[in-house]
Amino acid sequence: MYRNIIPAVCAVIVTILLASFLSKKNGVLVTEMDIEESHNRELPAFWKAILGPVVVIALLSLRSICGIAIDPMIALPVGGLMSVIVCGDFKNFSAYAEFGLSKVTGVSILLLGTGTIAGIIKASALQVDVVNILNFFNMPAFLLAPIAGILMAGATASTTAGATVAAQTFSSILLQEGVPAISAGAMINAGATVIDSLPHGSFFHATGGSVNIEIKDRMKLIGYEACIGMTSTAASVLVYLIAG
Predict the structure, then answer these.
(1) Cα 232 to chain center, whole Å?
(2) 110 and 71 in one domain?
(3) How many angstroms separate the Cα of 176 from the Cα of each of 108, 160, 193?
């Protein structure tokens, strides 16, 4: 994480520049009516709204803090239950749960497919093929880290799954080639942000659904997201070359 602070800052800067550019293009604008409707809704206080995610994070952190493993399938409902209790809206818990499940059903099915793809890649000889390609073009060994992150994230359409599969598949080769583990991990993580939001993954649909954007319009954003990811990846490689 420390190694990727500079790449993250670079990515934020590029994100702001691209957002400023895209805001001047034609699109669906937020109207005053939308703002008034939002303001007229009865919303909970910040501490009540944040309590649910805090509880979930605390429960999941117990694994690394004291070795107590709590499955996310348990932690997430507990966080939601805490939220409705502190908001004094427990009577509507069933309705909220039903609404939430309807929003994640499609994404959950996608994740099953993503997990299958990740398992197939892990069990394949892809790592050998990638190494052979790098050797053919006489490319330095450290480039295997960001390339692996990009390829695996593209295959799984997930930053997390892509970085995990890339690390499990290519870590031994990178260490054999003398690339430090921290640097390799940083470049893999950075590379995994380039094409992680393809349509066969959850990010694509989650981010598009959050603003009710049509799929064809969501597809147009992939190039900009890849540009941001390439910025952080290039910065991560430069940090490795400078700091080692």
Answers:
(1) 14
(2) no
(3) 37, 24, 25
Q: Return the closest-CA partner of residue 239 out of 200, 190, 205.
A: 190
Query: In this structure, are residues 192 and 162 in contact, taking their beta carbons and an 8 Å threshold?
Result: yes
d(CA 86, CA 96): 14
The structure tokens listed for 72 are 């996310």
- The domain of 200 spans 105-244
Q: Which of 58, 88, 118 is the last residue of a domain?
A: 88
157 and 243 share one domain = yes
Q: Tell me whether residue 194 is exposed, middle or buried, using C-beta atoms within 10 angstroms of its C-beta: 0 to 12, 13 to 18, 19 or more.
A: buried
Please report, in angstroms and rounded to a whole number, the separation of the first and last CA atoms in the chain: 15
Per residue in 23-77, pLDDT (tens digit) is 777 666 655 555 555 555 677 888 888 988 999 999 999 988 888 888 888 888 8
Give yes or no: residues 224 and 127 share one domain.
Answer: yes
Query: Can you tell me the distance from the alpha carbon of 84 to that of 46, in angstroms, rounded to the nearest whole number?
Result: 14
What is the CB neighbour count within 10 angstroms for residue 224?
A: 15
**Predicted TM-score of the model (pTM):** 0.72
Q: Which residue shows structure tokens 């390439």?
A: 230
Going by the DSSP 8-state scheme, the letter that residue 67 receives in this structure is S
Sign of CA dihedral 104, 110, 113, 118: negative
- By residue count, the chain amounts to 244
If one counts the domains in the chain, the total is 2
CA distances in angstroms from 29 to 22, 26, 32, 35, 41, listed in the order given: 12, 9, 10, 11, 20
5 located within any domain? no
